[in-house]
């Protein structure tokens, strides 16, 4: 069979993984395909063994007949130009031999071998009598990526306990196998997890034999499949960069991010998988400032529609609202503003920059000034008319619930979640005010109130509040952004209850 000619040369690396399976998706061929995709390649997969495993361990291994392995390999190479091969779990001597003879008759420019022997869980994935066969494969590969235990098997020495010994061992493996070695420090004790490229022939940059890439250890149990993921990333990035060193720098950074965000996946109760697409998802959801807040605004579309339909809002618009209901609403608003001002002050206290600190402090001052103004004007007027609650109105259940929700956000201490919870009060009032303005005219009983919330200065404050919250949301982790969104939605629901409450209460009384 003939292969399609490769006219323009590869743009997207076509990477074949020859490996075992992991139905829980964190290691083996499933991890390889995710890793290749995450690093910009087109992934292909030939299954060498079927492994019943999860994040807790391996249960059993089923190896299909080697003849079928050959058929899979040929099905791919007969049709597709392969830019790189990553070899993972081989399992037995006959599988190693089948892969070796396919590699000899189908040479590929870039071959990466992850000499999988024992899983993170401690289970054996390579027959003991196949270790020599794997070692004999080294001259056919370009890069081998052993962990410390696998390096010891390849060198026939004891497991290195310190990094310098591992590098020296790797140098001997590189010389004997005529191969570049990527030594992995994931199993070292201590706060770092370094990796290094070691090549006895001095084929690395400036004729060096060792190029080390430092790495901080991420404090997580989710390391299932790190080796598989790193080796397929190296195969893919090796094609993209044309050299191992930049490939490792890039892969290491990607792997560290994927480990840092692994907790977000919540997969399994053992050693969980890494989050292969964390970096991509963070960019893909284009968390520019406005997309975050716009999507939350859409999430509260139903709440906003219901607010528009409330008797208090309709009555404010057409001027028919009963003065007693309005007075009650204002008295509750004054009570609300007093605490809202305190919550704004807490946001100011936690602000990460002087500019935001001033912004929230100004808002706090604005809220308490508005509260005092309400007492001086509307409430005084309504008191004279004797149709509103008297001096010390107690907070209604709706007011208490809203204020308590905001105070709980203060108590939890997270700036992002707090400011997200503060935002609906700005945004809903501004939005409502802008739409109610068209009903305002001289002689409208609530004209002054309608004018306050459609004030251009308030519009600017609202714009800046959205911008600040959106920027925090755009930078936040997935989990934090979700907590911010929930605080925002909950505050919007409290707004609705707050608007509904005076009418409901007084009509029940
Ligand atoms: N806790 C960790 N924090 C940061 N990097 C890690 C951590 N554990 C493993 N790594 C990295 O993951 C890759 C795989 O390393 P290792 O765990 O040694 O191999 P394997 O998965 O084959 O046992 C290496 O790049 C290593 O530095
Ligand atoms: C099919 C297969 N291949 C490799 C590994 C090793 O992965 P790790 O050592 O990172 O758990 C695995 N568990 N399963």
UniProtKB/TrEMBL annotation:
Sequence ranges assigned to domain Thiaminase-2/PQQC in this UniProt record: 311-499
Organism: Luethyella okanaganae
Reaction catalysis annotation: 4-amino-5-hydroxymethyl-2-methylpyrimidine + ATP = 4-amino-2-methyl-5-(phosphooxymethyl)pyrimidine + ADP + H(+); 4-amino-2-methyl-5-(phosphooxymethyl)pyrimidine + ATP = 4-amino-2-methyl-5-(diphosphooxymethyl)pyrimidine + ADP
Keywords: Kinase, Thiamine biosynthesis, Transferase
Domain Pyridoxamine kinase/Phosphomethylpyrimidine kinase: 22-275
Pathway, per record: Cofactor biosynthesis; thiamine diphosphate biosynthesis; 4-amino-2-methyl-5-diphosphomethylpyrimidine from 5-amino-1-(5-phospho-D-ribosyl)imidazole: step 3/3
Protein's UniProt name: Bifunctional hydroxymethylpyrimidine kinase/phosphomethylpyrimidine kinase
UniProt EC number: 2.7.1.49, 2.7.4.7
């Amino acid at each position: 069979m003939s292969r399609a000619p490769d006219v323009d040369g590869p743009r997207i690396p076509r990477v074949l993984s020859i490996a075992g399976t992991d139905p829980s998706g964190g290691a083996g061929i499933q991890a390889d395909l995710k890793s290749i995709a995450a690093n910009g390649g087109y992934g292909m997969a030939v299954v060498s063994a079927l492994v019943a495993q999860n994040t807790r361990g391996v249960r059993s291994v089923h190896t299909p007949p080697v003849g079928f392995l050959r058929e899979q390999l040929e099905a791919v190479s007969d049709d597709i130009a392969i830019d790189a091969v990553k070899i993972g779990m081989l399992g037995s001597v006959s599988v190693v031999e089948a892969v070796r003879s396919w590699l000899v008759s189908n040479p590929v420019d870039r071959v990466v071998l992850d000499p999988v022997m024992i899983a993170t869980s401690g289970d054996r994935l390579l027959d003991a009598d196949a270790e020599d066969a794997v070692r004999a494969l080294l001259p056919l590969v370009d890069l081998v990526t052993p962990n410390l235990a696998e390096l010891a098997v390849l060198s026939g020495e004891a497991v290195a306990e310190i990094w310098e010994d591992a590098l020296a061992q790797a140098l001997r493996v590189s010389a004997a196998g005529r191969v570049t070695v990527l030594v992995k420090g994931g199993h070292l004790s201590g706060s770092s997890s370094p990796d290094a490229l070691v090549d006895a022939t001095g084929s690395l940059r400036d004729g060096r034999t060792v190029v080390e890439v430092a790495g901080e250890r991420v404090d997580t149990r989710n390391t299932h499949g790190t080796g598989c993921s790193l080796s397929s990333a190296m195969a893919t990035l090796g094609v993209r960069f044309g050299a191992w060193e930049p490939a490792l720098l890039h892969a290491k950074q990607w792997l560290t991010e994927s480990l840092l965000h692994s907790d977000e996946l919540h997969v399994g109760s053992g050693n969980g998988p890494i989050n292969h697409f964390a970096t991509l998802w963070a960019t893909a959801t284009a968390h520019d400032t406005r997309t975050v807040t716009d999507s939350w605004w859409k999430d509260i579309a139903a709440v906003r529609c219901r607010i528009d339909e409330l008797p208090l809002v309709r009555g404010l618009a057409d001027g028919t609202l009963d003065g007693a209901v309005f007075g009650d609403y204002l008295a509750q608003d004054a009570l609300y503003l007093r605490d809202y001002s305190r919550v704004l002050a807490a946001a100011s206290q936690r602000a990460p920059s002087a500019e935001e600190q001033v912004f929230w402090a100004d808002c706090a001052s604005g809220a308490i000034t508005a509260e005092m103004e309400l007492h001086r004007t509307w409430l005084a007027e309504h008191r004279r008319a004797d149709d509103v609650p008297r001096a010390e109105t107690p907070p209604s259940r709706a007011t208490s619930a809203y204020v308590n929700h905001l105070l709980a956000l203060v108590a939890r201490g997270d700036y992002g979640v707090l400011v997200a919870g503060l935002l609906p009060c700005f945004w809903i009032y501004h939005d409502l005010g802008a739409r109610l303005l068209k009903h305002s005219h001289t002689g409208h009983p609530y004209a002054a109130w309608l004018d306050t919330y459609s004030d251009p200065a308030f519009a600017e404050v609202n714009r800046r509040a959205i911008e600040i919250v959106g920027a925090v949301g755009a930078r936040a982790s997935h989990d934090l952004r979700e907590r911010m969104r929930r605080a925002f939605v909950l505050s919007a629901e409290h707004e609705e209850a707050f608007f509904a409450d005076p009418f409901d209460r007084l009509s029940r009384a």
